[in-house]
Amino acid sequence: MKVGIDVSAAIYGTGVSDYVINLVQNLPQSELVLFGSSLRRQADISALFPTAKTFPIPPTLLDIIWNQFHVLAVETLIGPVDILHSSDWTQPPARAKKLTTIHDLAPFIYPQETSSNIVAAHTRRMKWVVKECDRIICVTNNTASDLLRLFPSTASRIVVIPEALPARYISLTPQITKNANYVFAIGARQPRKNIDRLKQACAKLGQKLIIVGEGSDLGYVSDQNLVNYLAGASAFVYPSLYEGFGLPILEAFHFKVPVACSNTSSNPEIVGDAAVLFDPLSVDSMAAGITQAIKDRDQLVAAGSKQLAKFSWVKTAQQTLGVYNSLI
């Protein structure tokens, strides 16, 4: 069995990047035909995956070739494969059996918070996913429900396989400032990330808040600095209105930080009973959740460690391999 996997997304430092890297690293290498495309970053793809076939084609052009006109079978570039596992950006035509992974459906649920070009590209891609993919992996039950609601014809092809803690964080040792008293969040400019209400909740509590991420005071930081801020926090707060799979929650579990998060989308199935859930539309509920998380720190940290153990890239890869085998 030869499985072609598009690893183009691995170079961007996103949750999807973590998924691609960790999944591929845990699959039987002898069965993989890895490929990726980038106009300027082919070397970065090769650094991550030395055996990958790389092509100097920008994503925007592949969107036109594969999503819009849907020409140039992938086998033309990578040779014959039995299965094609496509990325979250393009859906090429192929003679092979096809599957893809859906991480979230934010471009369809929150199109006003996504650039029109990205929404259009995802819309073009999903047309072919719905029409051609033999299996569709969703990373949470919530994402599967969203897919079923938006694209009902996919019902019989959906498989739920969770992600796990990205390996890049496991090797990092936090450098913690002692006696620091703050709550920590990872933010972005999109309203669905709900950072404004979080700021109001912390102001109500008189609680210092540190946010990293797009549009925050600190902006993007290195993995080491992110871990330093996270591990030193009194609590990690994840107030988002919508997430496909909240990987930062697993990071907080790993670094033994109590979690308070919104009770929406995929969060409840990720945290189980290991976090304080709050109504993300209520500043008072959020403030109470933060207070409880700090108060119940020891209990939540212990529960978080148990919950984290339920997620494993080995298990993710094994289940994904099972999907591959089911298509042959």
From TrEMBL:
<keyword id="KW-0808">Transferase</keyword>
<dbReference type="GO" id="GO:0009103">
    <property type="term" value="P:lipopolysaccharide biosynthetic process"/>
</dbReference>
<dbReference type="Pfam" id="PF00534">
    <property type="entry name" value="Glycos_transf_1"/>
</dbReference>
<dbReference type="GO" id="GO:0016757">
    <property type="term" value="F:glycosyltransferase activity"/>
</dbReference>
<dbReference type="Pfam" id="PF13439">
    <property type="entry name" value="Glyco_transf_4"/>
</dbReference>
<protein>
    <submittedName>
        <fullName>Glycosyl transferase group 1</fullName>
    </submittedName>
</protein>
<dbReference type="InterPro" id="IPR028098">
    <property type="entry name" value="Glyco_trans_4-like_N"/>
</dbReference>
<feature type="domain" description="Glycosyltransferase subfamily 4-like N-terminal">
    <location>
        <begin position="15"/>
        <end position="162"/>
    </location>
</feature>
<dbReference type="InterPro" id="IPR001296">
    <property type="entry name" value="Glyco_trans_1"/>
</dbReference>
<feature type="domain" description="Glycosyl transferase family 1">
    <location>
        <begin position="218"/>
        <end position="300"/>
    </location>
</feature>
